[in-house]
Automatic annotation (TrEMBL):
Residues 6-123 form the Glycosyltransferase 2-like domain. Its EC number is 2.4.1.266. This is Glucosyl-3-phosphoglycerate synthase. Pfam families: Glycos_transf_2 (PF00535). Its cofactor is Mn(2+); Mg(2+). It comes from Actinomadura chokoriensis.
């Protein structure tokens, strides 16, 4: 059954994107791989196309949420004429060969047991200090929905088309996963975590990695502020103290 489209948001991933695309093509039922080149300065788009992916390019970096929306819209257009829309499997660009292990994410969605699955990596990846962002997201989801996920920021997710459309518009940047979980649970969609042996690039500790984590924290906090008045109040007081 060919019923899965793999969507891979990517920025400056020319060194890993070919391996990720080729591994994604091996997933059962995945007959379409779409790479969204989100304003890369390297050859990400060209390498992905040569590996067999359909490539959509943003002329400038617009963030992960926008890249996910662009990829899903590309799949919608390619689904025209199909009896049923494909399920949407989102994978990070740096999974490389481990992307072929993502099949367990699809199975509950295909079977009708879940509307969205979230990966919990069984392979330990060095977090490099971004645990505070995970805690912020996890606690925010718990406050908003009563559910406490193990991997709230994991971008490896499979959704039905109906679930994805119900969450539009997606939150900006790195707040997309946190907001997606809250918005779907609040609407009564079924969300499950699934253990998978995937692994992405370990997070570093240099200034670039710290800047990345700062952006993650900002985006997650903004996503929560729009969904939790208590968070919005705390952010407002923090901004006031800086003036």
């Amino acid at each position: 059954m060919q019923d899965v489209a793999v969507i891979i948001p990517a920025k400056d991933e020319a060194d890993r994107i070919a391996a990720t695309v080729k591994a994604a093509q091996e997933l059962p039922g995945a007959d379409l791989v779409v790479v969204v080149d989100d304003g890369s300065a390297d050859a990400t788009g060209r390498v992905a196309r040569e590996a067999g992916a359909r490539v959509v390019r943003h002329s400038r970096n617009r963030g992960k949420g926008a890249a996910m929306e662009t990829g899903a819209e590309a799949v919608r257009l390619l689904d025209d004429g199909r009896d049923q829309p494909r399920h949407l499997l989102f994978l990070d660009a740096d999974l490389a060969e481990t992307a072929r292990e993502a099949a367990p994410l699809v199975e509950p969605v295909r079977a009708g047991d879940a509307d969205m699955t979230i990966a919990v990596f069984t392979t330990t990846v060095k977090l490099g200090g971004h645990g505070f962002v995970v805690r912020l997201s996890r606690e925010g989801i718990r406050r908003a929905t009563g559910w406490e996920p193990d991997a709230p920021l994991n971008g490896q997710r499979c959704l039905t088309r109906a679930a994805f459309d119900a969450a539009l518009p997606l939150a900006a940047g790195f707040g997309v996963e946190t907001a997606l979980t809250i918005d779907l649970l609040r609407q009564g969609f079924r969300v499950r975590e699934v253990e998978v042996p995937l692994a992405h690039r370990a997070t570093g500790t240099d200034w670039r990695a710290q800047l990345h984590r700062g952006r993650q924290f900002r985006d997650v906090a903004r996503a929560l502020a729009g969904r939790d008045p208590a968070v919005a109040g705390r952010l407002g007081r923090l901004r006031g103290s800086r003036q």
